[in-house]
Amino acid sequence: MTKPRIHVLALGGTIATRPDAAGAMQMGLGADDLVAAVPTLGKIAEIEAETVSRVGSHSLSFDQIHALASRIRALEADGIVVTQGTDTLEETGFLLDLLLDLDVPVVVTAAMRNPALTSPDGPGNLLAAVRVATDPWVRTHAKALGVMAVMLDEVYAAADVLKVHPTRINAFASTQTGPLAALVEDRVVPLSLPVRDAIVTARRRLGNTVPGKASPVALLWMALDEPGGLVEAMLAAPDRLGYRGAVIAAMGGGHTPERATDILVRLAAAMPAVVSPRAGGGPLLEKTYGGPSSEIALRKAGLIWGGRLHPLKARVLLETCLRAGLDRPAIIDVFAAWN
Ligand code: GLU
What we know:
Elements: E1 5-10, E2 17-19, E3 25-27, H1 31-36, H2 41-44, E4 46-51, H3 62-74, E5 79-83, H4 89-99, E6 106-109, H5 122-134, H6 136-140, H7 142-145, E7 148-151, E8 154-157, E9 162-163, E10 172-173, E11 181-184, E12 187-190, H8 197-206, E13 217-221, H9 229-236, H10 238-241, E14 245-250, H11 258-270, E15 273-277, H12 295-300, E16 304-305, H13 311-323, H14 328-336
Parallel strand pairs: 1-4, 1-5, 5-6, 6-7, 13-14, 14-15, 15-16
Antiparallel strand pairs: 2-3, 7-8, 8-11, 9-10, 11-12
Helix pairs in contact: 3-4, 4-13, 8-14, 9-11
The structure holds glutamic acid.
């Protein structure tokens, strides 16, 4: 029986590090090295290995992920595995999910423990990712599953997965929806299919490929007694700072400190400003509380409601909307699907 062809694209990250003379871990390994470290891969797939870059994911750019999406679209493979750093996997995976609408599995994986440590997780995660990409249930439901993240024998929807710990090996979770599947022995055990209406709405508005140039989006985390000074600076020097949109990580069901609210409302008049839950999951409230910085007031004042979308993912989505040239009503429509 012919084995599925899986294309492994390596971007960098802890999974691809090796120690320098001083013992510090440096980016260095390529896709061939990662694949060679897991001989079992050859038993389950025909592997094609491609090194895209050797960078930490904390330094990846939107442009690089757009280029990666174009490269993936051009491939003729039965499944795609991307290896990268863990730091921005929750963002890059979501962006790939917005950009790719393939009928083959696309899986992103990484490592928390570097290759110089005892029991590094990179090789096991790569094997699990390839297993997922070759699994019959996953392949049948590839479109419905969307881009997936595979870490520590669990499969997550890229649209929901979050990095929830900076160092632990079990650093990833889908806190709102739970995993799509689990791995045990040599099997992938299906658990659920994701609700993807919001992704479908976004893709319809964004078009198939997103052209345009980088459109920086500020991430403004609201916190106790925040005075709003950064927003003052954004409004005073819009060209110098260059932000074209903002995500406001709001408290609770969608609230901001009263002292910062006037300036946030002015920001929302100057550029698309999306409210997203700093608690990490939603949905946000829409019509419960009154008062000047309540969800009712903020919505009436023109802030865009980001629903259940985590602030990091809302920022990715808003950047993509702006890059694609969407106007305000279209952006509101895209985010409304997450409410
Ligand atoms: N900061 C690096 C990165 O994201 C290493 C972290 C990791 O891969 O876990 O690529």
